[in-house]
Design brief:
15 helices, alpha/beta, eight-stranded parallel beta barrel, single chain
Length: 326
């Protein structure tokens, strides 16, 4: 039986299916703690080791080597530990990439590029990354996640999303608001202002639209709430349901599970997806009738991607579906 990925997207760039949370850790202690939690919960969230804000001035090399060591450690059982490097204007960004690729390039799921001023910065950093990959004999190009947190990057977000190698567009809310020189109030850095202020809402919509139009995952900014799980869950739910984000940052272990829960597909839709995709595979992907409605490859694509997202968020699926598709 042919797998849906092979049948439903011929000649197309497959849409990335990523864990629903990208959890940031800046110190060795927090990176190891996050790895321990990932091994307890499973690969329902990514970990990004931060070599930008996490690195002390003057210790950039040591921090990059430490982060790369975390990626290569035996505790990284799922291969979902990434690294954020310095931005294009920082004197150490090239050193970051050289160190990280040389030590951990073979296991990196992605590299995150912060604060580009526009598409030229992104293209220059990706070009250098590809050079370093070739120098180190890597056969696989490392995907890139790009932080949209400047007005220049927002202005050129469609070009950034279309750049080969880009897998995710991440919204950097705090720097975006700060970059407006007081024109956006500080209340827009948290809820409900982050969803209601027109300039911030416009940025979120533009990022999502550009990402989805170019086969790239839109990733929502952090929530500043660390303790109230209902607030965290509601922020993630609004990001998902109102703005179309498929993934969200976390900066505290308390945030991971409620974000994953909010980002999961509706259970009843997952049940329907299992039934439709299974029946379609049995029919060789010809049209079928399900509950009195016709389904063909157009709807199969929708239900297959929904099923893949359900699996990525750790939802319990029937054993038969796991055996057939995952």
């Amino acid at each position: 039986m042919r797998h849906p990925s092979d049948v439903l997207f011929p000649g197309e760039k497959p849409f990335p299916v990523l864990p629903a949370v990208d959890h940031y850790a800046g110190s060795e202690k927090l990176m190891k703690k996050a790895l321990q939690l990932q091994n307890e919960l499973g690969p329902i969230f990514d970990i990004t080791c931060d070599c930008e804000d996490g690195a002390h001035a003057g210790a950039e090399r040591e921090h990059a080597e430490m982060a790369a060591g975390i990626v290569m450690s035996a505790d990284n059982r799922h291969g979902r530990v990434a690294i954020r490097v310095h931005d294009f204007t920082h004197p150490h960004w090239q050193q970051d990439i050289e160190i990280i690729v040389a030590i951990a390039g073979s296991r990196l799921p992605f590299i995150t590029l912060p604060k580009p001023r526009g598409v030229a910065d992104v293209q220059a950093q990706i070009a250098f990354l590809r050079e370093v990959e070739a120098k180190n004999g890597l056969q696989r190009p490392i995907p890139v996640h790009v932080l949209i947190e400047t007005l220049g990057a927002l202005h050129e977000v469609w070009e950034i999303a279309a750049t080969p190698g880009v897998e995710s567009l991440d919204f950097g809310l705090m720097d975006f608001v700060s970059g407006h020189h007081g024109a956006i109030p500080g209340a827009a850095m948290k809820s409900p202002g982050q969803f209601d202020h027109p300039l911030v809402a416009r940025a979120k919509c533009e990022i999502t639209t550009a990402a989805l139009a170019n086969g790239v995952v839109p990733t929502h900014n952090v929530t500043t709430e660390l303790k109230d799980l209902d607030v965290i869950r509601n922020d993630a739910r609004r990001a998902r349901n109102e703005f179309g984000y498929l993934r969200m940052w976390s900066i505290h272990p308390n945030q991971i599970v409620p974000i994953v829960e909010a980002m999961r597909p509706d259970f009843s839709e997952v049940e329907k997806a299992v039934a439709i995709v299974t029946a379609a595979q049995d029919k060789g992907w010809a049209p079928i009738a399900h509950e009195g409605l016709l389904h063909d490859r157009a709807s199969y694509r929708y239900y297959w991607e929904l099923l893949a997202r359900a699996h990525a968020t750790g939802m319990t699926l029937p054993d038969e579906a796991i055996k057939r598709f995952f």
